[in-house]
Amino acid sequence: MTLVIPVILCGGSGTRLWPLSRSGFPKQFLVLSGDESSQSLFQQAVNRIHSVGNADITLGKTLVVTNEDHRFLVLDQLRELKNATKDFDATLLLEPVGRNTAPALSMAAFCAKQLSSNQDPILVITPADQTIQNPTAFTKALQDCIASVQAGECNIAILGITPTAPETGYGYIQRAGSKDQHNAYVVDRFVEKPDRETASSYLADGSYLWNSGMFVLRASTWLAALKEFRADIYQASQKAWETKSEDIADAMSGIGFIRPDKEAFKAIPSESIDYAVIEKCPKSQHKIKMVELDAGWSDLGAWDAVWQVGKQDRDGNVTSGDTLLTNTKDSLVYASSRLVSAVGVENLIIVETADAVLVADRKNSQDVKNIVSQLESQKREEKNLHRKVARPWGWYDSVDEGERFKVKRIQVKPGASLSLQMHHHRAEHWIVVKGEAEITNGDQVITLKENQSTFIPQGQTHRLANRGTEPLEIIEVQSGNYLGEDDIVRFEDTYGRS
After folding, report:
1. What share of the chain is helix, strand, coil (3-state, %, to 5)?
2. Rg for the chain (alpha carbons), in Å?
């Protein structure tokens, strides 16, 4: 029986899919495409990687490496999967800052050895933001990778994607010789993202495949190769791991949080898995092979890719939400909060959210990152957050704002509560529109039902809680001379933010 530990790399911000993907709610948590249309890309990745289990493969606890700020997004989406399947456990490795994928995998390797009582499990590593149109082919290719590593035919097995076009946005893998009993080829070399002419020659050659970023190896293999090729990353990662802290997200889910030491983690050199180790392995002692995957793979790196994998109508259009199109061809139209119509256009990307609209030529969709750069330089909030913002206790939607006032719609999950807090610069009026609210207002604790309201004076300690079994919704009207989200002083917090 082979012990396999799934590793989901869940970092990144997906800036090329703005305005839907933002740093506060990046693309891996979005529902964008694929047969499992009700699931996010992250949830699809979890389901796919768990499909490899069979009579010969035992799956261990899933490891998710993600940003500290996204821990509750991951937790909520894992809970949804557990409620549906109840057949896996997970541990979240929380990065205090982004240091690329090599340190992320190092944390997972150290953790896998600890969780498996210092056995040497096989790790199956996948990014959280890809889509696969043929999951059966994916499962078979991944099982071939596991079998190749288990049999000792290679130290590392990587999935290579059958190329369908002279793509310049991907790295390539060149294979050598013929495939073995597990459908694996020897990797001859890795090559960087090519220009168009070179990519066309790779396509014609037939021995070059796209680098998927998905691979299989033992925890010890990664740590040994990292120590050999990048001892600085190994030593700094080991220090961050040895000074970690651990806690349980909640008793009901049993999902754990592991936090490497913040200052030690920040000191780790930032590098990708490929540059640090994988691309150095061909012709080294770390034997690497590749299994070809032809399964409708996409990393959804830009809106054009979302259009390509989407369900196109007879005019080549992909639509989502409330849309009306006439005399429109080969376009993607995404509406999230209102009616969006298009007349007499071709090859466009149109994406609408509550606070931003993107219009782009499909062939230039990679350049959306330039808009995000401008938003960042102007310090505009639209880069980071949507109008509707997810919080561990629920969400809030800023529905209106003017001089000295802001109106929010707030939903609190059953059993959840906001922090005990106060504001220096604003007062708040709360009106309950759904459910029942327990409100701490200074020294008083009161219960309000639908159509009842209360006033929170400026400087007053207060808290909003939902002790019921149904969602609570309120309308909050803020008034004052400063209404920024940073005007919050927390005294107690269920979610560790005080």
Report:
1. 25, 35, 40
2. 25
Residue 69 DSSP SS3? helix
Q: For residue 273, what are the contacts with CB-CB under 8 A and spacing of at least 6? A: 101, 102, 105, 125, 213
The backbone torsions φ and ψ at residue 255, rounded to the nearest 5 degrees and listed phi first, read -75, 130
Residues 473, 462: Cα–Cα separation, whole Å:
17
Q: Which of 83, 9, 101, 85 is nearest to 53 (CA)?
A: 85
Give the angle subtended at the CA of 115 by the CAs of 109 and 116, to the nearest 5°: 90
Gap between the Cα atoms of 494 and 463, Å rounded: 12
CA-nearest of 428, 422, 418 to 394 is 418
Q: What does each C-alpha distance from 453 to 356, 428, 475 come to in angstroms? A: 32, 11, 9
Tokens coding 477: 């009207």
Q: Round to whole Å and give the CA distance between 162 and 292.
A: 6
Domains (range + CATH), the chain: 2-298 (3.90.550.10), 311-373 (no CATH), 388-492 (2.60.120.10)
**Tens-place pLDDT, residues 77-123:** 998 887 766 567 899 999 999 999 999 999 999 999 998 887 899 99
**Sequence-separated (6 or more) residues with CB below 8 Å from residue 246:** 256, 257, 258, 259
**Residue 166 and residue 236 in contact, taking contact as beta carbons nearer than 8 Å:** no
The pLDDT of residue 35 is 46
**The pLDDT value given to residue 463:** 98
pTM of the model: 0.92
Joined together, the tokens standing for residue 241 give: 């791991």
Which of the residues in the chain have pLDDT under 70? 33-37, 84-87, 250-254, 498
Tokens of 28: 């891996």
Phi, psi at 211, each rounded to 5°: -85, 115
The answer to whether 439 and 494 have CB atoms below 8 angstroms apart is no
Q: What is the pLDDT of residues 447-467, one digit of tens each?
A: 999 999 999 999 999 999 999
What six digits make up the tokens of 325? 């199109």
Q: Which tokens belong to 258?
A: 């592991």
Q: What is the DSSP letter of 28?
A: G
Give the C-alpha separation, 171 to 348, whole Å. Answer: 27
* Cβ proximity of 106 and 233 under 8 Å: yes
